[in-house]
Amino acid sequence: MTREEIRSEVMQSLLGVAPEARPESLKPDQELREQLEIDSYDFLNFIIALDKRLKVSIPESDYQHLATLDSCVEYLARRMEKV
Amino acid sequence: MAEFRMPSLGADMEAGTLVEWLVKPGQSVKRGDIVCVVETQKGAIEVEIFESGTVAELLVQPGTEVPVGTVLALVRGEGEPELPAREQPAAPAAQPAPPPPPPPVARRPGGGPRASPAARNAAQVLGVDLAGVQGSGPGGAITLADVERAAAQAKPKPEARRTSGMRQAIAAAMSRSKREIPHYYLSTRVDLGRALAWLRAENERRSVADRLLPVVLMLKASGLAARRFPNINGFFVDGEFRAAPDVHLGVAISLKDGLVAPALHSVPDKPLGLLMSELSDLIQRARSSELADPTLTVTSMGDNGAESVFGVIFPPQVALVGFGRIAEGHVNLSLSADHRVSDGLSGSTFLTAIDRLLQKPEEL
In angstroms, what separates the C-alpha of B285 from chain A's closest C-alpha? Predict the structure, then answer.
């Protein structure tokens, strides 16, 4: 899967928990949770969605790598290479 | 001549907005006819009339919000003679007097009013039309202060006052709470080190979809403690307190234009995994607006919120438990409670009980 494809999957997962999010106005290097005002419950659902879409199970200790759109793509690309 | 007034359509209703007239002046009406639609915090309601006769005059324009009891229309009874038209129609009760027309403004030859660059910038930012601002500067020029004054005066626009039904319901409940319930507030700092470490280990064992959030531990601990403190859990109705037999925790859930606090039922008796899935379900249902019947409310700031929260009790409940943001392994735990029912001492012991429970997460 290319980074562009991963990015699109991440976006779809985000739209699942924050349907009013506008992809074009999201700043890829800034905190997702602040920009989208998602709480810990939404964030957990985002992780569940990524798990379903990409078959990547993300441990809680790695949540820190998922702070921004860019870092999500980076982290997921690395995890998927290892598989 | 009979007066048709804004009815009270609920104990908490203080005012209503006339949405639509379904009758016209000159039209005959009889008792029980639907004559208008009124918007209240409970939604739009069709209102019937109790007099029979002929509509003589509609006094309130659609879109106007008026207090309960305001005369909306005059109805001429059967056989009553037609009165000559009044010289001045009565002004709608709640409509504010129109502001005096602005005095003439100094004009530049170019067209727009004279204004300093700072005033122009501020006008753009604040959305103020310079043509309507009276200048106090040299030669009637508009200054920054004039623009700021105009912006402040323009604030209470009709649109700004049009609050949503949910906002109105919250306003009514919270005003009633602060009017009737003598609140007292307590706060304590709880070490969550053990609870969070236990949760990390527990979540490693669980699949992604079954992971627990810290709030579930806090809800369970609050529920167990509430069962041991009956004067925190129940309702104050008709001048007396009635303890509730079971603990149904209202969970404050923020929504786009307000919040709701539906209940998680029988919290003390449920395992954490079940509470977590019921909480997920509750949040989903709350966001699609379905409600329930809590005995005590818990609000949790989550991890983006403030460090401490002191809530306003949802009447007729008698207490509200607050958890601030979890920071550096600690959380500020608070209690707002009804002083008619409990005192600071029992409130403190209640908070201590929650703290103790959170120190033994494996037993929750």
Answer: 14
Peptide bond into B7 cis (omega under 30): no
* Number of structural domains in chain A: 1
Kindly determine whether residue A61 and residue B215, on different chains, have CB atoms separated by under 8 Å. no
* Residue intervals in chain B for CATH 4.10.320.10: 99-162
Tell me which residue in B203, B207, B283 faces A60 most closely, judged by beta carbons.
B203
Whether A58 and B208 lie within 8 Å, measured CB to CB: yes
CB atoms within 10 A of CB B261: 20
State the average pLDDT over residues B95-115.
48
ipTM: 0.72
pLDDT tens, residue by residue, B106-125: 334 344 567 777 777 777 77
User: Is 0.90 topped by the overall pTM?
Assistant: no
Amino acid at B233: N
Give burial (CB, 10 Å; 0-12/13-18/19+) of B268. Answer: middle
Is the domain spanning B99-162 CATH 4.10.320.10? The answer is: yes
- Closest residue, chain A, to B214 (C-alpha): A40
Contact predicate B212/B278, CB 8 Å: no
d(CA B250, CA B225): 15
